[in-house]
Design brief:
Pfam families: Acb3. By secondary structure, the protein is mainly beta. Helices cover 9% and strands 50% of the residues. The longest helix is centred in the C-terminal third of the chain and has 11 residues.
Length: 231
């Protein structure tokens, strides 16, 4: 039996037929380890897909897999051939409703911390209209190579709640996830990528720290990205 590290912590148990490159095997992931045991070929034969090229007929061996896996919050079942084609793969899966986080709010703030638009998550049009009208701070800046540009910044806050469908009651007991970010737009492409024909970064965002002002958050961003403020 072969044992390897499983840093992602996924859980599964499956049996694979293998194909023309890999042998038949039993695979188990548990306790942050991968356990693989090679099996006799007769235990599970590969799926042989009929193919034709011009007048020549032939078959291609594909892995046949039966098993169940849990990766983070996604439960998946394999029950046959795995060709890499979603129309042919025998696989079903779904997210566990008690572990899902539903996005419920996107709030835009004025520069003084008051609410500009309470919730723009209902449609892209609402969000885009609010984003264009929200007050923005402007900073005259200089990139690492001396190029001058203008950065604009505004505050956006998003909220997620635990549980969907019949499990929304979990929200009574689980704290919401709230992320406040400083959204940035630049008048020119900036950063070292612009030297490699990629145009540079024209927009970005960072998570704001508790009680951090727009200017303080932007200065922290500048320190991390080789930018100086000229005003």
């Amino acid at each position: 039996m072969k044992i390897e590290s499983n840093p992602h912590g996924s859980l599964w148990i499956s049996i694979h037929s293998g194909d023309d490159e890999y042998p038949c095997r039993l695979s188990i992931a548990a306790f942050r380890r991968y356990f693989t045991q090679q099996l006799p070929a007769w235990v599970l034969r590969p799926y042989q897909k009929p193919c034709q090229y011009q007048d020549r007929k032939f078959t291609i061996d594909y892995d046949r897999c039966y098993g169940v896996s849990l990766t983070e919050n996604y439960l998946s079942f394999d029950y046959g051939c795995q060709t890499g084609d979603s129309n042919e793969d025998k696989q079903k899966g779904f997210f566990l409703p008690w572990g899902e986080w539903e996005h419920i709010r996107c709030t835009l703030y004025n520069l003084d911390g008051s609410i500009h638009t309470a919730d723009t998550s209902q449609s892209f049009e609402d969000w885009d209209k609010a984003r264009n009208s929200v007050p923005k701070a402007e900073f005259n800046c200089r990139d690492y190579d001396g190029m001058e540009f203008v950065a604009t910044a505004y505050i956006e806050e998003r909220e997620w709640r635990r549980g969907v469908s019949w499990f929304k009651w979990l929200r009574l007991f689980v704290k919401p996830k709230i992320r406040r970010s400083l959204d940035l737009e630049f008048s020119k492409g900036i950063g070292r990528e612009k030297d490699y024909g990629k145009g540079g970064t024209t927009c970005h965002g960072i998570e704001m720290q508790p009680d951090e002002s727009v200017e303080a958050a932007f200065r922290r961003y500048c320190t991390e990205h080789e930018i100086s403020i000229t005003q």
